[in-house]
Amino acid sequence: MNAQKKRLQLLSVLLLLLMVGLYFSMTKGSVETSFANLLDFLIHSDQTHAKIFIQLRLARALLAFLVGASLSLSGAILQGYFQNPMAGPFVVGVSSGASFGAVLALFLGLNFSLFGFSLQSVFAFGSGFAIVSLVYLLSQKKGIFKVETLLLTGIAAGALASSLTSFLIFFKSESFEQAVFWLLGSFQLAEWSQIRVVFFYLILSFFLSQWYAKDMNLLILGDETAQSLGCSVNRVRKIFLAVSTLLAASSVSVSGIIGFVGLIVPHWTRMLIGPDHRYLFVYSSLSGGIFLMFCDLLARTSLPGSELPIGIITAIVGAPFFIYLLNKQR
Amino acid sequence: MRQYTIIALFLTFLQLPAMAGGQERTLTDDLGHVHILKHPPQRIVSLAPNITEILFALGLEEKIVGVTRYCNYPQQAQKKERIGGMVDLDLEKVISLQPDLVIAFRGNPLRLIRRLKNLQLSVFVLEQGTTLESVFSLIERIGLVTHREKAAASLVDGLNKDYKRVLNRLSSVKYAPKVYINIHGKGLWTCGRDSFLNDLVHKAKGFNIAGETPRAWIAYNLEEIIHQDPEYIIVITKSQKDFTEIKEWFTQEAPLGSTQAIREKNIYYLDEDLITRPGPRIFRAFEQLSRILHPALFRNLR
């Protein structure tokens, strides 16, 4: 009962933060606007304010929220999957892999989509999946994951993917803008069409992960125990790996690599509400979304007249946290 | 009689839009987008410094509402509203300025241009050419899109005269000295075959030692410079002060002492804003480079 109370408390805090975040996202920006402007716009909308409020600010805030939620859910899944709080889409190398795929698709000029699935996100998914499978195979010895191997292979594979990305960009592009976007992330060009895509993948993944959340709880007990308790371990593992990669890939294909969100948010959520995945998935998604929404607010308002890549902000918050985790584990 | 007057007046009114500055025109930009322009643009946003310089040169100062933070010429450009950089554009600012024409230059990323179009802005995109003369067509096309073709024609005419005058002086040149162009400070960045700078060097009767490399901008190799042994090193920087620093580095630290350029102290400065912006001032840079490479031909001139 106590746990439930705690969760309700956290939920109300998160909803409050979400409101505050949305409010600031809508009213702050390089063009000075106030709450009165916003109200005024809602009553008799004019073109200019419609563009600023709906097409720029709201689109950006929502996309940041959805990407944050996707990355955190992906991280929560990976941490359960590898039974390790150090896992995350960036650490395991999925993000870098996906980013390589997306850039490769651009490089090959495959800039079209089929049934709303752009070839770019298919490539992102494919190469993200390849990287995570590689890391999975290499860090496993007789069914047991070694943390060091997991981290090291993840970092090595991620670095390889990132440098291949840089190579393609260096070779092809006329500017380094692309490199900054793909390697440090940005929501500068957020638009509603991207929101639809990320939203679709997030909802799909969310229901799948929620459906199998109980099985994830069993996996923590070890594969054999889980099997004996009626969980079809192999299938569940495959689904989770696919879902977490899908989430990372769809995020990366709209916003580039944004590191550390998928690492710190699920971990932090677990500290607050405990390791039950039935709740962990929901709360991680929600807090991740809010976290990234605030980070993006900082990214676009902290330097007047200019913009910071959001990956810089999440790394400033995330890297010290990662070091803290490493230190604590030792 | 009165009836005729009314009809005449009516007809005059019909004619008014045409008299006020030209008829409807259809133009295609360098990305293949078709623009239908009904009237001269009144609120122009420029997304690149060379575009800003051309707009000012066409007498459009009053119509410009926003420029990038790099648009520092002419002086009046600095008083215009800033809309961020060429890459990290402040979309909100652009929207709030309510432009009826945004002129983009490649260098502005495609994704950014697409986003601006999705925001229902009228974006006219111009490609960076690979020749010096492409600046003329750039000016003419900006003239068309802003309904200033006469001003554009006379600007091009004047620039072309200066350009031809220098070309005439150079026509007797038989030998093009080997040149290494250094851009962006100490990093050994230079211009390859696909850049307009390469064309500028070529037209100034110089031999760009990196001119065979099939890209626009490349990070060059120190050994390669030594091997090619340039007779001139042209350092392109923001200021004379930066130049002094880089010159020091070239003459003392970098092992280029064996090259002719360093031995004969043929290391020169060219202003970055002048030579890297495909705008009206590029022809001044062209003349400066020609004078550096062939001083004898310009001796009896100012």
Q: Which strand order do you get reading across the main beta sheet of chain A?
A: 1-2
Approximately how much helix is present in the residues of chain A?
Answer: over 70%
CATH architecture designation of the largest domain in chain B: 3-Layer(aba) Sandwich
Distance between the termini of chain B: 67 Å
**What percentage of the residues of chain A does DSSP assign to strands (E)?**
under 5%
- Largest sheet of chain B at a glance? 5 strands, parallel
Low-pLDDT parts of chain A are none
Sheet with the most strands, sense and barrel status of chain A: 2 strands, antiparallel
Protein model, in words:
The complex is a heterodimer of chains A (about 325) and B (about 300). With about 325 residues, chain A is mainly alpha-helical. Chain A has a single domain, classed as ABC transporter involved in vitamin B12 uptake, BtuC, CATH 1.10.3470.10. In chain A, about 75% of the residues lie in helices and about 0% in strands. Chain A has helices at about 1-25, 35-45, 45-80, 95-105, 120-140, 145-170, 175-185, 190-210, 215-220, 225-230, 235-255, 260-275, 275-300, 310-330; strands at about 115, 115-120, 140, 145. In chain A, strands 1-2 form a two-stranded antiparallel ribbon. A two-stranded antiparallel ribbon of chain A has the order 3-4. Chain B has 2 domains: about 1-125, 3-Layer(aba) Sandwich (Rossmann fold), CATH 3.40.50; about 175-300, 3-Layer(aba) Sandwich (Rossmann fold), CATH 3.40.50.1980. Chain B has helices at about 1-20, 50-55, 90-95, 110-120, 135-145, 150-170, 195-205, 220-230, 240-255, 260-265, 270-275, 280-295; strands at about 25-30, 35, 45, 65, 80, 100-105, 125, 180, 190, 205-210, 215-220, 230-235, 265-270. The chains are: A mainly alpha (about 325), B alpha/beta (about 300). The interface of A and B includes residues 31, 48, 57 and 306 of A.
